Predict the structure.
Amino acid sequence: MSRHAIHLEKAINELKRLILHLGTDVEESVRLAVQSLTERKSEQAKQVIDADYEIDQREVFVEEECLKILALHQPVANDLRLIIAILKINNDLERIADLSVNIAERAVYLSDKVKVDLPFDLQDMAEKVRSMLKRSLDALVNRDSKLAQQVCEDDDAVDDLNREMYKCVEQAIKKDPDNLNSYIQLLSASRYLERMADHATNIAEDVIYLITGEIIRHGSNTDEAGF
């Protein structure tokens, strides 16, 4: 192996480490945000909000490292696909972290309001989203296209839960209109989780692209596109 190839391999391995570390922190941010909402822990919610700056900085650092590798090593084939995939995954992780902040902000708002009850398990929905995120990153590490495909298929279940939440909130507002704002905040949290699932699906789709070269986003494929 040439010296150039050795340096490229080392840089790519470090890039993998960075993106997985970021992914782990984002997953934890989701967990803490939802917990702060369901258990009404405003201080924990503020920790999620404060930690977002560091996640943003690390997202910028990963992007800079990707661009540095492209400029210095001019990778081709599989290496090039990996870097493109990581660039996109990096962006999706940052967006998930932003959505965690949105949920944490709802937790802060609700922390001093009268607690309202809904026949809906927001924590269960969050666990499904976290599982999708974790498995999408596992698929990246193990280059497992089947696992990535499972993540894509699970997105429909989260969409269904979001619709169920909407119905629960609609009925609750009719029975208890005085707490409308609190119900709307909870509905917003459900919507943010649904969007997180979309980003986890994006990551899984990027993993499939990395492994197979097939672009499946929006149901497209290269043959139908004429390429």
Remarks:
- Confidence is low (pLDDT under 50) at residues 220-227.
- The longest helix spans residues 3-38.
